[in-house]
Amino acid sequence: xxxxxxxxxxxxxxxxxxIAPEYRKRWQERFPGDTxxxxxxxxxxxxxxxxxxxxxxxxxxxTDVEADLKTKYPEWASRYGYKYDxxxxxxxxxxxxxxEAWEHVTGRR
Length: 109
Prior knowledge:
By secondary structure, this protein is mainly alpha-helical. The chain has one domain (10-106). The chain has helices spanning 16-30, 38-53, 62-80, 95-106. The chain is globular and about 35 Å long.
């Protein structure tokens, strides 16, 4: 397992409420004119952000945590009142947003 040389940047240890506008702006730039709504994407970005700053994931790569994050998403979403469609491809439908937030925090691509 490859480890990062640096810790998660302190700037990315803000609360979701503090950093959400930055992620919304990134989403709007990534998907200009998208027919979706930020409120649909927000839980995925929030999950990636919160998991990336969680000390138990410190220094881990996306490939090392993806299976664990997939397993834990339903409980996390339920805790925060987010709904999700649990079909056969539920994780594949939004994992790119989770990964984007993860990589933004960790500085890894």
